[in-house]
């Protein structure tokens, strides 16, 4: 029971438990003199699979004269968020894909049935040349996933040679006959996808042995050597990390971990645009759990690789909802609301703060599939709220991570309780500090006093992504309904920075 004589504010705090009230000012400390790790730009990577309208009728449009060509509007939008790398051709599709079907004259390429994603037949119109021309246009590094599940060591070895051999060789000569003289020098190379599942249902011991065989046949060509990426675990499959690192760690450069979050269950997922606050909280809690899960995988990796040479790569991540009503359910087309953007920013803050081990990540999947940056409909294109988070966070690409101390109370919904605010602080090459903050509480703003230790700050400016409704989203009729706006809630007074962080918002500040 609460004694009657306690002051009103204290009673409010007791009733709210650990929840910060709007009146309480919380503290965020940036240790600007303690930076050690760089936030790799590759954490902001993307993933595009032959799935639904991702590649065909998404990134690529049909050319009147035949074949497929990258959409200029999509290319420009992705360049604007400085897309650093693109993972392709899958996903589950990768372990079905035979690369020789996708080279040479379009009219002579065989068709392929996409058994994972709706059994549709595609014409192999987007293959190695088209994909690598796309990444060149994007200014992104390609991350190619080779076929282990239904392919052979020889097939992967020849693909490597076709793409990268600089001199005379059977595959390099074939590449030249197909119109490309110079090698592409691709180095991010995945050895299968989800080999514990759609990529072959293997045990980690078996996969580790197979992995070692495949990587033994990817020779270096001068300075071009494969950055060898092994199939990693999903979610809390810590045993996979343990065995694969123990058995093959010395030949691994990156371990490809996957995690999707959703509301409900895999067989009955929640909807993208129609949801309750309880479902908001469920998704935010699952986003927040990335931290503990990554910490545990990283701790296992530390045992086998104390020098942290091997990258933990979050090769597939994102929010997975029910497909939009009226669309082909196998095409995984979903809308994207403020909720997805806030979840993405929570996860990106976590990945940034694990910059000592996490050096690459790929959100699934770029255009028209799952948590996409871009949706298209005929000639129309829109940027999703998640796109805008990626745009706000470009400031962290290759910047120095600055350690922070933050406790802004908890957001509580029913049985669920989680830290309300997450953040990333970094310093760019020009000496500017960038602070991104997410308030995942959909109801309460947070007042923060930000202290910067070790660097003096005299000006602040910023932008905010928020909306009145939790399910606010962009449509082809209103493509700009959710977009960043100037932020007026930061005040610098006598060296003290105070920030009013609105409910359900992502704020990016620049401090000079
Ligand atoms: O992104 C959709 C699918 O999710 C991918 O094909 C697969 O790797 C994962 O299970």
What order do the helices and strands come in, and which of them pair?
Layout: H1 8-15, E1 25-31, E2 45-47, E3 60-62, E4 68-70, H2 72-80, E5 85-88, E6 112-114, E7 120-122, H3 128-138, E8 141-146, H4 153-164, H5 170-177, E9 188-191, H6 204-215, E10 227-234, H7 238-248, E11 254-261, H8 277-288, H9 290-304, E12 311-319, H10 338-353, E13 358-364, E14 374-377, E15 380-383, H11 385-392, E16 400-402, E17 404-407, E18 410-413, E19 416-419, E20 421-427, E21 433-439, E22 446-453, E23 460-465, E24 485-486, E25 490-493, E26 496-501, E27 505-511
Helix pairs in contact: 4-5, 6-7, 7-9, 8-10, 10-11
Bound molecules: alpha-L-arabinofuranose (AHR).
Low-confidence stretches: 1-22
> Over the alpha carbons, how many angstroms does the gyration radius reach?
24 Å
β-strand number: 27
Continuous helix count: 11
Oligomer: single chain
Helix content: 10-25%
Structural class: alpha/beta
Which ligands, by name, code or SMILES, are bound? Answer: alpha-L-arabinofuranose
Question: What does this molecule look like?
Answer:
By secondary structure, the protein is α/β, with parallel strands linked by helices. 24% of the residues lie in helices and 27% in strands. It has 11 helices and 27 strands. An 8-stranded parallel barrel has the order 2-5-8-9-10-11-12-13, surrounded by 5 helices. A 6-stranded antiparallel sheet has the order 16-20-21-27-23-24, with helices on one face. α10 packs parallel to α11. The termini are far apart. The N terminus is likely disordered. The structure holds alpha-L-arabinofuranose. The site of alpha-L-arabinofuranose (AHR) has 10 residues, from loops.
């Amino acid at each position: 029971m609460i004694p009657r004589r306690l002051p009103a504010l204290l009673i409010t705090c007791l009733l709210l438990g650990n929840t910060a009230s709007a009146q309480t000012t919380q503290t965020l400390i940036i240790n600007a003199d303690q930076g050690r790790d760089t936030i790799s730009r590759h954490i902001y990577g993307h993933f595009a699979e032959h799935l639904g309208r991702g590649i065909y009728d998404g990134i690529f449009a049909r050319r009147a004269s035949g074949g497929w060509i990258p959409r200029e509007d999509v290319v420009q939008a992705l360049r604007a968020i400085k897309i650093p790398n693109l993972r392709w051709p899958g996903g589950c599709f990768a372990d079905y894909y035979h690369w020789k079907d996708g080279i040479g004259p379009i009219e002579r390429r065989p068709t392929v049935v996409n058994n994972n994603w709706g059994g549709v037949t595609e014409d192999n119109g987007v293959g190695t040349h088209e994909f690598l021309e796309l990444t060149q246009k994007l200014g992104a590094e390609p991350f190619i996933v080779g076929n282990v599940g239904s392919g052979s060591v020889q097939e992967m070895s020849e693909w490597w040679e076709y793409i990268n051999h600089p001199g005379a060789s059977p595959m390099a000569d074939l590449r030249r006959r197909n119109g490309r003289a110079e090698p592409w020098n691709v180095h991010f190379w995945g050895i299968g996808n989800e080999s514990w599942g759609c990529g072959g249902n293997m045990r980690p011991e078996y996969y580790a042995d197979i992995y070692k065989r495949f990587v033994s046949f990817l020779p270096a060509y001068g300075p071009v050597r494969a950055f060898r990426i092994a199939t990693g675990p999903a979610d809390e499959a810590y045993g996979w990390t343990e065995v694969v690192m123990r058995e093959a760690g010395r030949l691994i450069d990156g371990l490809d971990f996957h995690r999707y979050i959703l509301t409900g269950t895999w067989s009955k997922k929640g909807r993208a645009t129609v949801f309750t606050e309880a479902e908001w909280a469920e998704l935010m809690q699952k986003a927040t759990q990335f931290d503990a899960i990554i910490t545990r995988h990283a701790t296992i990796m530390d045992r086998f690789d104390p020098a942290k040479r091997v990258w933990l790569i979050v090769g597939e991540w994102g929010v997975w909802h029910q497909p939009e009503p009226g669309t082909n359910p196998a095409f995984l087309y979903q809308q994207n609301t403020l909720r997805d953007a806030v979840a993405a920013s929570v996860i990106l803050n976590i990945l940034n703060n694990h910059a000592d081990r996490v050096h690459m990540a790929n959100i699934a999947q770029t255009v028209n599939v799952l948590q996409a940056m871009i949706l298209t409909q005929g000639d129309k294109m829109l940027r999703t709220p998640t796109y805008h988070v990626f745009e706000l966070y470009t400031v962290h690409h290759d910047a120095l991570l600055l350690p922070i101390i933050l406790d802004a109370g908890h957001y509580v919904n029913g049985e669920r309780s989680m830290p309300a605010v997450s953040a990333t602080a970094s310093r760019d090459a020009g000496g500017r500090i960038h602070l991104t903050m997410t308030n995942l509480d959909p109801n309460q703003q947070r007042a923060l006093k930000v202290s910067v230790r070790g660097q003096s700050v005299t000006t602040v400016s910023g932008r905010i992504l928020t909306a009145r409704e939790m399910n606010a989203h962009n449509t082809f009729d209103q493509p700009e309904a959710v977009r960043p706006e100037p932020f007026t809630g930061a005040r610098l007074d006598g060296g003290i920075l105070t920030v009013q962080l609105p409910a359900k918002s992502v704020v990016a500040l620049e401090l000079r």
